[in-house]
Design brief:
Chain lengths: 242, 242
Amino acid sequence: MVSKNQIKTITGLQQKKFRKQDKLFFAEGIKVVQELLNSNFELHHLYTTDAFFKGIAADKVTLITPDELKKISALTTPQACLALFTIPDEKPVPDTGLIVALDDVRDPGNLGTIIRLCDWFGISHLVCSLQCVDSYNPKVVQATMGSLARVNVIYTDLQEYLAKTKLPVYGTFMDGTNIYKEAMPQNGIIIMGNEANGISAEAEALATHRIAIPRFGNLQQTESLNVATAAAIILSEFRRNV
Amino acid sequence: MVSKNQIKTITGLQQKKFRKQDKLFFAEGIKVVQELLNSNFELHHLYTTDAFFKGIAADKVTLITPDELKKISALTTPQACLALFTIPDEKPVPDTGLIVALDDVRDPGNLGTIIRLCDWFGISHLVCSLQCVDSYNPKVVQATMGSLARVNVIYTDLQEYLAKTKLPVYGTFMDGTNIYKEAMPQNGIIIMGNEANGISAEAEALATHRIAIPRFGNLQQTESLNVATAAAIILSEFRRNV
């Protein structure tokens, strides 16, 4: 059984305001929930249509019907279970290693894909400007496929962060140096920009290295890459010589 | 004015069946429509809420109201104009150069992103298995941001195509050779697999080279990359030494 109050609380968590207030977020589907159960995230409560998971304390599980799941799910096609987890405190970002910084990335799918990429390339810290989409947004959580558990995402004033760091700061610009022609270091901050406007003038002014992904197609065209595919290419270049 | 019949024809084009029958597809929004107008695609008819485009024959334009646009649009938020274009005949794929082949890629966003990547990396031909999502699907057209005009997408029996080619065939597999350790050729077919199942056993049997993108994160995890981000990394590797 899910009470009316529980439905209200859970659907409320689709909004950032209530996630901040309750310090809770949710994930759906056996694969994503299993990945988060295996991680350091603390389970708050699991709503499930069947006994898919072993070893969970009885007071943290509620068996529900598919109809009840529909009432709490954020998915068009609900997927067997929904779990609430506690939002942990952000960890401090060290001033060493490779760090990705996002300047107003607004699309949940893009943020989710970038979190997966960080996980793949062994990048433990992702710094987001305050205007980025929230990493605990249900669409981001689903897109990360569990990688959210392995990447520390922190939200901060990006300009202040970039002004203070001692690390080199890399930004991608049309007039930057060809990423294929120089060996990339294993210490640095890589800024990726907003979907429509790219990197802001404020962040651009704080970039110490301007890089570019060469284009091989028709050079008359001004078309750009999507921010997540650009991040894939750049992270691959930074890691390929390790 | 848009007649009831026109509304029926245009909304019908959201279905592959009617696109095949009428040999028409549509695109929306000033940016995408402008890119397609600048290309080799033949305009069939333009429905627009304002005179955004110059030099179009008067009998090919209908000025409509935002309310009328809503009735023909496939977007949640209609974007000022909608244009119908003729679907051209598929061009033959040469047995030379770099070619991308998709094995049952089903998600319109992924296909659109891969078409954009082909355009960026100067890959003119994209071979799709018959189970791939249709490249003239409205969601694909919007995701390509105009790149559809510059990449020849052909649908064919992939197994037959791979069996006949004289080009080397590259497939990405966990046990493949590290893409960062060998120089990639400028002739070959790169197969990318289905979102859930990867490359099919039939296509795998026809791959002449097994490659892999090394993972740098926690190696206990079995997580994979999204097919579009994997394509970005692989295409970048094939082009980086040109």
